Amino acid sequence: MNDETNDWYSAEQATFGDRVAGARNAAGMDQKQLARRLGVKLQTVRDWEDDVSEPRSNKLQMLSGVLNVSMSWLLTGEGEGVSGPDEDPVAGVTLEDLVALRADLLAALKRLDRLETRLKDAA
Fold first, then answer.
1. For 45-59, how does the pLDDT look when each residue is reduced to its tens digit (9 = 90+)?
2. Domain with 104 in it
C-alpha cells in the first residue's frame, strides 16, 4: 500500500478504470471474482475498467473496501492505493514508452472522433 500519490496511477497518467484494474490485479482477483464479490455483473466490472461507466457511490465504497484502497485513490489517484509496476525496463519497454504511447493513442482517438463527426455531417 502507498499513502502518497503514485505517478503511475495519478490523474494525469491513469483513468478510473486503470486504477480499478491495477488494484484488482494487486488483490489477485480476475474480473469475474471481483464482480461476484461486489454482487454485480461481469460486464459491469468490464465497463468500469474500460471507462465506459463508473459505479454508484454505494458500489464505489464496496469496491474500495474489497480492493483495500481508498475511494479517493480510485477516483483521483491520490490517497491510499497500490504501487505501480516497476519502472525498470521490461523486455525493452519503459514507463516513458508507455506514457508516450498512451498520449499518441489519445491524440489518434480525438482525430478519429473529429473525422467521424465530419463524415456524419457530410452524409
1. 999 999 999 999 999
2. 86-123
